[in-house]
Amino acid sequence: MDLSTPMTQTYPLSVTRNRGWYGKVRKLALFAKTPRGRVRLGEVKSGESVTVNVPQDATQICGKMDWAKSVPLDLTLFNGSETVYANFWFTLNPLRLMGIPTMPCRIESQPR
Fold this sequence. Notes:
The protein is mainly beta. The chain is 4% helix and 46% strand. The chain has a single domain, classed as Immunoglobulin-like (Sandwich). A hairpin with a 2-residue loop joins β2 and β3.
């Protein structure tokens, strides 16, 4: 164990992904934004729930699939042991389908 790097405190956060048609066969990678940069938390498949360990100093959580990113969620109001939802929605917008500016996904505190 390397003692020169400080241990980061984490808290559990449950992430549930709905069964939307967008990216149905792809995993959604989960990332947290911290003062030290972006931290990969894990992945969630369509229709599944996972529990990830989020650094205490994380300010946002977002999803990423290939080059496209989701709309992020502000984590400053969360204190751990809660559930957030990766909500995908239907769209006919060809730019949004390609992930420009974001893919049709939002990390939210309520399911759709």
